[in-house]
Write a structure and sequence with these properties.
- This protein has 509 residues and is an alpha/beta fold.
- The protein has two domains: 167 residues, Ribosomal Protein S5, domain 2 (2-Layer Sandwich); 313 residues, Rossmann fold (3-Layer(aba) Sandwich), CATH 3.40.50.
- The protein has 22 helices and 16 strands.
- It has a five-stranded parallel β-sheet.
- Strand 1 and strand 2 form a beta hairpin.
- Helix 7 packs across helix 20 and helix 20 crosses helix 21.
- It is elongated.
């Protein structure tokens, strides 16, 4: 007899429907799972066998074939267990389905029949929410808080295989998830900008970066506050919108990084991978591609401390996602696209010893300095909108007890600038200045005669590329938004140019 049930599988960060077809025939006992199933899925044979027996049902000693359709797509995960087990019981006529409504199942089975939580429930729920006809989604009880984020879908939590069987036969009813979404995924406080002594220029640059989603490069001696500043930038970001919350939570769900108690990512991600991280861990990949650090930093910040110490392949792999805001990973079985809309903050010393350009003696030769700095290629440097020098903090600044601007005060101006940009790009698929296309750059970043002359002079002296030219205009537009100015003025352009001086100063030692 044939039984057909519905589930989903994760392809990148998107979910796609799958038909689980179970056919039981007379013949020698055999249990095969076909349809490009991974080893984790094939191991479901033993989990399903034990779960069925321990629920006091008979496992059929016949020829069992399970097909996961469409059969031409590689499938990964343990959430197929529940659909396979129920399909075997229906096909062997031990369970009679009374429910006429269309339903989907996802869950991993323990050997005693308990249903374990699985990653990827949120993208599955979002996919089912968009279907043209109403469906019901049977999920593990452990995934209830995650499924509660999609109130438009009837998600039914189950704890045991017998709960599913009794619901299918019509013996019990299951209440859909109707709990209020949790307050968020709380992380340790990133600190406050008022705690940073001195470095007013760097604070201003990071305010501009946060307001327009611009990449920034922090250059300064050891102990100057580069890491301290970078870790505090998320404290001045605007609050996340519901769309941004769902985008980030979906990625963390697929990566199986959600906190069970606080499954909602409503605080800006801050990712700081180690310098020895591989290219696949940064941009995403693997045998079955999974999101990397650049995707986990979606709507937040990716911080690369000691940027020149990262592997050259890792740095060059960032060039395409920094421009396109997505990363495409190609494998033999398919192509996967992951989002990568983040701010890149990089930090580095001016030389290997860290003293070049300061009052302390530099022990490095010009050749060593050039070799160190040239680890960052010109194309990657060109994608950094703001190049910020951090001098050494002196004694008077350290002993100054007068508090500077707090993160809350800076955040207020950043939020207001973001609101201006959202109104400006209301009919676009982007909402920040850094993502403007050439048409909008020309429309919203027009300059007067004096500003044009200033930009022409800088273009020649700094040897700017066309990309660098556009990025300067975008930064100037963000500075004008922070000042609530409708037109980009000469002083806004001059400040934007100030953050590109390192193009010539350091890379021509």
């Amino acid at each position: 007899m044939l039984a057909v049930l519905n589930t989903l599988f994760i392809n990148g960060i998107e979910a796609q429907p799958v038909k689980v077809e179970v056919d039981i025939q007379n013949g020698l006992p055999d249990f095969q799972i076909v349809g490009l199933a991974s080893m984790a899925i094939k191991e479901a044979r033993e989990r399903v066998r034990s779960a069925i027996k321990n629920c006091n049902y008979k496992f059929p000693y016949q020829k069992i074939i399970v097909n996961l359709a469409p059969a031409d797509l590689k499938k990964e995960g343990t959430h197929f267990d529940l659909a396979i087990a129920l399909g075997i019981l229906i096909a062997s006529e031990q369970v009679k389905a009374a429910s006429e409504q269309l339903y989907y199942l996802a869950g991993e089975l323990s050997l005693d029949g308990s249903v374990r939580e699985v990653p990827g429930i949120l993208p599955m729920a979002l996919e089912l929410m968009d279907m043209s006809h109403p469906v019901q989604f049977l999920i593990p009880a452990g995934n209830t808080p995650e499924a509660a984020l999609v109130n438009e879908l009837a998600s039914l939590p189950v704890q045991h295989l017998t709960d599913v069987i009794r619901w299918v036969e019509g013996d019990i009813s299951l209440d859909p998830v109707r709990i209020a979404p949790p307050a968020g995924r709380f992380v340790s406080s990133p600190g406050d900008f008022s705690e940073v002594k001195g470095q007013e220029t760097a604070k201003r640059a990071l305010q501009i970066a946060a307001a327009g989603m611009h990449n920034a490069l922090l250059i300064g001696p050891p102990g100057g506050g580069k890491t301290m500043l970078a870790r505090r930038i998320v404290s001045i970001f605007p609050e996340m919108s519901r769309q941004e919350v769902l985008e980030s939570t979906r990625i963390y769900s697929v990566a199986n990084l959600l906190n069970k108690d606080q499954p909602l990512i409503n605080s800006r991600p801050f990712r700081s991978p180690h310098k020895n991280a591989s290219s696949a861990s940064i941009v995403g990949g693997g045998r079955i591609p999974r999101p990397g650090e650049i995707s986990l930093a979606q709507n937040g910040v990716l911080f690369l401390d000691e940027l020149p110490e990262f592997n050259r392949d890792v740095l060059e792999a960032l060039r395409q996602p920094l421009e396109d805001k997505v990363i495409t990973v190609a494998r033999a079985q398919g192509t996967y696209t992951f989002p990568a809309n983040f701010i890149l903050i990089g930090s580095l010393n001016p030389c290997p010893c860290g003293n070049f350009g300061s009052q302390l003696e530099c022990r490095c030769t010009p050749m060593q300095i050039n070799k160190y700095l040239n680890r960052i290629s010109g194309p990657l440097l060109d994608r950094m909108d703001l190049h910020v020098e951090l001098p050494r903090v002196n004694f008077e600044q350290l002993k100054d007890h007068n508090p500077g601007k707090t993160s809350a005060q800076i955040k207020e101006k950043v939020t207001a600038a973001r609101a201006i940009q959202e109104n400006r790009f209301v009919d676009r698929n982007y909402k920040v200045n850094a993502l403007m296309d050439s048409h909008d750059v020309k429309r919203y970043c027009s300059l007067n005669r004096d500003a044009e002359q200033l930009l022409k002079s800088a273009f020649q002296k700094l040897n700017l590329s066309a990309r660098g030219y556009n990025r300067i205009l975008k930064v100037a537009r963000t500075i004008a938004d922070l000042e609530n100015e409708a037109v980009v003025q000469t002083q806004h352009l001059a400040e934007a140019l100030q953050y590109r001086s390192l193009d010539k100063k350091y890379w021509m030692v």
